[in-house]
Amino acid sequence: RKEVEQDPGPFNVPEGATVAFNCTYSNSASQSFFWYRQDCRKEPKLLMSVYSSGNEDGRFTAQLNRASQYISLLIRDSKLSDSATYLCVVTQSGSQGNLIFGKGTKLSVKP
Amino acid sequence: EPEVTQTPSHQVTQMGQEVILRCVPISNHLYFYWYRQILGQKVEFLVSFYNNEISEKSEIFDDQFSVERPDGSNFTLKIRSTKLEDSAMYFCASSRDRVPAFFGQGTRLTVV
Question: Does B13 touch chain A (CB under 8 A)?
Answer without folding.
Answer: no
